């Protein structure tokens, strides 16, 4: 069965595509065309309403992506579009299809997600993971499902005891280690090795150096924030004096609303010294005076007018990791974020000062990097 058949009338697709173009900035770039086929007219109107309500861009991208996945899963699993509100039985089916015991699956092939559903989602490029989903992913999709239900003025069974119990028991039945988004942090020593792979003359080298330095020095910005950065967000500030009294270039980056900011709060971080010089070198070399800061470069050296895909930021980090002779699978773009706080902890920078730059809202999350640094260097870890 074609999981997209219910929504692929040519006129309907064209109409939805035109509507999606009006909110394109908040959709996952690599799945925009696929979402046009999957989402219903009502889904698109719901997303446009959320945009008009001023919800954060990253939150909307997650909502749009998860809505597309839920629609496709429901079509494959039940043969029908996603119902609103979803009955409790459908929510329990979603948990059963995504949180299951690999050991039980070996003895019982019908345990977990049915093969026909798995194949349908993979053929549509919507399912890439092997094995059960991470509990956090299932929890996020259920939370977004609940949010979209509420925005339609409806109630769901998301708080039902049966659903909570099913999730708890499923997680207990198949325990898995929680892995960091980047196995290792990109601290200053690692960053230096990555920067050493960036030459002086290639336009791609100039861009990648600026991406690495800006992402790290601005507090470990998320790859989506790096990819969506625009020239209009940059403000030149008065020079800052170095330890010898000499001037260092400085600028501020107005992030607007981020994942961790409150409503109406404009997040601002600062760059000083070498990162500013690297950024200016890229803007000059690429002749960028407005619009997206970091852009794709084709094989002939032409700079695109469109922003980089957030995934491309991760690809750039991994490419430089490989060039530096480091283990490709141990680092990712998120390593720049964790690396910033880890480096701040290693240098004894007070946690509140580091959080002002990283814009972490949770002291508990940010302090975990500081606690790890203290434990590694403390007496308790050097008993022998």
TrEMBL record:
CDD domains recorded: INT_Cre_C
Region annotated Disordered, chain positions: 354-384
GO biological process, any: DNA integration
Record's protein name: Integrase
Pfam family, one: Phage_integrase
Biased composition (Polar residues): 363-375
A molecular function (GO) term: DNA binding
Signal peptide positions (record): none
Keyword DNA-binding: yes
Segments forming domain Tyr recombinase: 181-383
Family per record: Belongs to the 'phage' integrase family.
Origin: domain of life: Bacteria
The entry's keywords: DNA integration, DNA recombination, DNA-binding
PANTHER family associated with the record: INTEGRASE_RECOMBINASE PROTEIN MJ0367-RELATED, PHAGE INTEGRASE-RELATED
């Amino acid at each position: 069965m074609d999981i997209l058949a219910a929504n692929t009338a040519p006129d309907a697709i064209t109409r939805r595509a035109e509507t999606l173009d009006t909110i394109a900035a908040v959709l996952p770039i690599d799945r925009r065309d696929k979402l046009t086929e999957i989402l219903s007219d009502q889904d698109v109107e719901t997303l446009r309403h959320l945009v008009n309500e001023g919800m954060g861009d990253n939150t909307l991208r997650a909502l749009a992506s998860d809505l597309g996945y839920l629609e496709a899963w429901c079509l494959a699993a039940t043969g029908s579009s996603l119902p609103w509100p979803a009955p409790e039985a459908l929510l329990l089916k979603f948990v059963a299809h995504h949180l299951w015991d690999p050991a039980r699956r070996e003895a019982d092939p019908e345990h977990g997600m049915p093969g026909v559903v798995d194949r349908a989602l993979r053929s549509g490029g919507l399912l890439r993971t092997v094995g059960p989903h991470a509990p956090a992913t299932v929890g996020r999709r259920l939370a977004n499902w609940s949010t979209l239900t509420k925005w339609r003025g409806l109630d769901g069974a998301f708080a039902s005891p049966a659903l909570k119990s099913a999730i708890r028991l499923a997680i207990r039945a198949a325990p898995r280690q929680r892995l960091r988004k980047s196995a290792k942090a990109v601290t200053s020593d690692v960053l230096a090795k990555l920067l050493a792979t960036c030459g002086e003359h290639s336009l791609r080298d100039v861009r990648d150096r600026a991406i690495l330095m800006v992402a790290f020095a601005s507090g470990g910005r998320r790859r989506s924030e790096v990819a969506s950065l625009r020239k209009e967000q940059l403000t030149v500030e008065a020079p800052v004096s170095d330890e010898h009294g000499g001037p260092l270039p400085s600028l501020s980056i107005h992030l607007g609303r981020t994942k961790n900011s409150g409503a109406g709060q404009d997040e601002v971080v600062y760059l000083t010294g070498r990162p500013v010089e690297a950024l200016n070198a890229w803007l000059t070399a690429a002749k960028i005076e407005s619009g997206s800061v970091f852009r794709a470069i084709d094989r002939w050296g032409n700079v695109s007018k469109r922003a980089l895909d957030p995934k491309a930021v991760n690809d750039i980090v991994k490419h430089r990791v490989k060039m530096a002779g480091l283990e490709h699978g141990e680092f990712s773009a998120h390593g720049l974020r964790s690396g910033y706080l880890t480096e701040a902890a290693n240098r004894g920078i007070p946690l509140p000062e580091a959080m002002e730059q990283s814009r972490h809202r949770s002291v508990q999350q940010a302090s975990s990097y500081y606690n790890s640094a203290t434990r590694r260097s403390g007496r308790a870890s050097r008993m022998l």
